[in-house]
Every structure is written in structure tokens, then in C-alpha cells.
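FAQ: What does the model actually see?

It sees only this:
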Amino acid sequence: MKKWVRSGLVWGGLLYIITIIALPMLSGEQLSYYKIIMGIPLWIAAGLAIGYLFEKKGTAKKKSRR
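And it is asked to produce this:
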């Protein structure tokens, strides 16, 4: 698995847990199955985008140093 995919999935998983599960529980909201299920593909896509952008930013810095 590519490094940016793995890091993107980790970012997506962390953000999913924080935004879909932890914050609603802390504010006393009821967890809905719809939000939990619909959040999975949303945060997978967002996490992969974050991982890809971080990878591109890192390669741009490496190229500018040379």
C-alpha cells in the first residue's frame, strides 16, 4: 500500500471518529445509524484527499531543495 493512501486512511479514520462519534456524544446528541453509515465513505474520500495533498506538498518541498 502506498504511504499516502495509508496516511490518508488514518487521517480519515481519526476525523471520522472525532466528528461522527466523539463530538456528538460529548454534546449529548443521539447517534443515528444514518450519520454513522453515511460518514464512512465521506471520511474515506476526505482522508484520501488529505493524504494525497500531504504527499504532493512533501514532494514539492523535496524538489525545491535540490
